[in-house]
Specification:
The chain has 287 residues and is mostly beta strands. It has helices at 2-23, 29-36, 269-272, and strands spanning 53-63, 71-82, 87-104, 107-116, 120-125, 133-142, 163-177, 180-193, 203-216, 219-230, 242-254, 257-266, 275-286. The chain has one domain: monomeric porin ompg (Porin, Beta Barrel). It has 3 helices and 13 strands, in the order ααββββββββββββαβ. It is globular.
Length: 287
């Protein structure tokens, strides 16, 4: 009797296991990363690959204090493409539109303008392989091409006018189990003022970030935490002294397109008193 019971249990386990494997086929690390790295991060840098990536991001802060700004719209246009077997080049141009209105009794003051951020060039070293863990280095330069003030709550894209920026980072990504993947990124950033800059002192920052994502079918759900820490003297722009953003987003990949929505929250109380959060929409084409 015991032998029959054990035989029945073993047969049942084998049947259920075979059905589970059929419904949920094992995804190899290479397959998982091949699907994953064609998706995109929101704030962390994307993985360099052999294909070209052209993207556009729209970010809209949800303003709390309307005495500061009535509306801010941030945009980011970028392209990433291979320049050799080992390196990719990314070119990024941020710009913004903002308007505000202040009332002093019967007197009302309003203004609106468009500002362009300085153009940046990033040289990425491609990973040697797409196994269960990958890493890469990158080095970038930002040039003071545009001299308009750039108003933004996305502190990673903010470079003050009349300043060069030299930056770099190291990125590491690891597949934990099937489609669960984590990533970390960190690196220095140096502002070098030109002779026309109002602040003649150079500033040194440390950028850092981490991400956790799950890939299912053509969807990617991703949570990111990024931050910046001023290693030099305190900057007049409070957003850049020490700040963190936590964000969650969902991206859908269809054919050669990535379409995503993301919502971020400033963790610094002196900043989030002005904004409830950061709404971001993006679209990419990979060719």
């Amino acid at each position: 009797m015991k032998i029959k019971v054990l035989y029945f249990l073993a047969l049942l386990i084998c049947t259920l296991s075979s059905r589970t494997m059929a419904d949920n086929p094992v995804i190899t690390p290479a397959q998982s990363f091949e699907n994953y790295y064609e998706h995109s991060f929101t704030y962390l840098h994307n993985i360099p690959m052999d294909k070209r990536r052209v993207g556009f991001q729209y970010q809209h802060p949800d303003i709390r204090n309307y005495l500061i700004y009535n509306s801010i719209s941030n945009y980011n246009l970028y392209v990433n493409f291979p320049v050799s077997k080992k390196f990719n080049l990314e070119i990024r141009l941020p710009f913004t539109q903002f308007s505000f209105k202040e009332s002093y009794g019967s007197y009302i003051q309003s203004n609106s303008t468009t500002g362009y951020g300085n153009i940046s060039f990033l040289l990425q070293m491609k990973p040697e392989s797409m196994n269960s863990n990958i890493d890469h280095f990158a080095f970038g330069l930002t040039f003071p091409v545009f001299t308009a003030d750039f108003y933004t709550f996305n502190f990673r894209d903010y470079i003050p006018k009349n300043n060069y920026c030299v930056f770099g980072y190291y990125s590491y990504m690891e597949r934990l189990d099937r489609n669960y993947i984590i990533a970390v990124e960190t690196g220095p950033r140096l502002w070098i003022p030109t002779s026309d800059a109002p602040n003649p002192d150079a500033e040194v920052f440390l950028d850092y970030g981490t991400s956790a994502g799950i890939l299912f079918d053509n969807f990617l759900f991703n949570v990111e935490l990024i931050g910046v820490f001023n290693l030099s003297a305190a900057n007049d722009y409070e957003l850049l002294r020490r700040n963190n953003i936590i964000s969650a987003g969902l991206e859908y990949r269809i054919s050669s397109f990535n379409v995503g929505l993301n919502y971020g929250y400033m963790l610094k109380s002196s900043i989030n008193k002005y904004t409830k959060g950061l709404f971001l929409a993006k679209v990419e084409i990979i060719i």
